[in-house]
Amino acid sequence: MIESHSRTLSIEMQKAAEEAAKFLRSLSNPHRLILLCTLIGGEKTVTELCQTTGARQSLISQHLHRLRLEKIVRSERRGQNIYYALSNPIAEELLSILFKDFYPSDLNIECSFPNNSPT
Questions:
Q1: What does DSSP say about strands 73-78 and 44-45: parallel, antiparallel, or unpaired?
Q2: Can you give the CATH number for the domain in which 71 is found?
């Protein structure tokens, strides 16, 4: 009985670890991290993300597509525009930690954290 419980627990831990690894792979790209940091400040259109990041529209669209598939961002059409926003509180929390530890405080980076400022 105990061995069966241990085996079930091990299977569940394996599934959880695979999901966590998949989630972290979604974040493990510099372009996606910049997009996500930008979206922490609030929802934005692709045009606004292009202006903020300096990246090409095709690159931003490609990364937003991946982030939507992983349910890290959501999109909402309003008239002619599609607005993108963070939809995953775990991603927001991780970004807060990464921002605090990896971005020098003297950089003027627009990345606002509504609930818990990293500075």
A1: unpaired
A2: 1.10.10.10
The answer to the question of residue 113 being in a domain is no
Can you point out the beta strands (E) in 1-119?
A: 44-45, 73-78, 81-86
71: three-class secondary structure by DSSP: coil
Say if residues 111 and 99 touch (Cβ distance below 8 Å).
yes
CA dihedral 59, 61, 79, 88 (to 10 degrees): -130
Ordered mean pLDDT values, 10 residues apiece, the chain (119 residues): 70 91 91 90 93 93 95 95 95 86 61 43
Element (H, E) at 63: helix 57-69
42 within domain boundaries: yes
SS3 (DSSP) at 77? strand
pTM: 0.75
